[in-house]
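Journal club prep — side note

Before the paper discussion, L.F. wants everyone to see what a predicted structure for a comparable chain looks like in C-alpha cell form. Sequence:
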Amino acid sequence: MSLILASIKVSFLAMGVIFLVLGILIGVVNLMVHFIPYTAPPSPAPRAKAPAAAPAAGPSQDEDHIAAIHAALAHHLGRAPQDIHIQNITAL
C-alpha cells in the first residue's frame, strides 16, 4: 500500500513541477509581449513588371493537370481513358 501512495505522491509532484514551469513560461511570454511588442515587417517595394513571355509551343500546364487527373481517374475506376469524359473540374 505504501508503494501506491509513494507513486501517487511522485505523480502529483511531477504534475506540479510541469504546471509550475508552464506558468513561468506563460509569465515570461506575457512580459516579452508587454516590453517588446510585435511590429509587422515593412512590405517590400513593388517591382517593375517583367515583359510577358511568349507562349510555349507545347501543351499548357492546365492541360497537363487535366490529363493527369483524367489518367488517375481512369486508373482508379479501372476503365479505359477513352471511356471517361471529364466535364467539369473545380478547385477545392
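L.F.'s comment for the group: Residues 59-92 form one domain. Keep this in mind when we get to the figures.
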